Amino acid sequence: MGRIAPSSETAPTVRLAELGDASDVAELLSQLGYPCTRDEAIERIAVLREDPRHDLLLAELDGHACGLIASHTRYSLTRGNLLTRITALVVAKSCYRQGIGRLLLREVERRARRDGVGRVEVASNIRRTDAHDFYHACGYSDGSSVKFVKMLGD
């Protein structure tokens, strides 16, 4: 991972993540701020691959992982249709500003349309203002909900 400049004739590709991608997934999650070991990544990839409602996609450039996106599709009782939630999106720092994030978003949107999904949602930490600008530039609008979290300890 981490090629800085793609060759001029190579376009990034997107594919489903495999167990063998665990080192790249761990590195990308760590860059996103969620430290993860290779073994933890193997377990996470396996869990997502077992559930057809989840997708974990990797972007590759010149044969090297350069980004990932994870999504989950579910039925929304309040909306009466399917919605897809993006649960993680990260592009390797060495591959910023090369269209990788947009490519990953568009692939999730394509899969959602194919599956009859009416809405794609993404949550982003309030401090990630660059990410907010990116989502706005990709056609996403601010939601009207506030997210609440309660950690359940032992």
TrEMBL record:
Annotated InterPro entries: Acyl_CoA_acyltransferase, Bact_Acetyltransf, GNAT_dom
Name of the protein this chain belongs to: Acetyltransferase family protein
Pfam families: Acetyltransf_1
GO molecular function, one term: acyltransferase activity, transferring groups other than amino-acyl groups
Keywords annotated in UniProt: Acyltransferase, Transferase
Domain N-acetyltransferase residue range list: 12-154
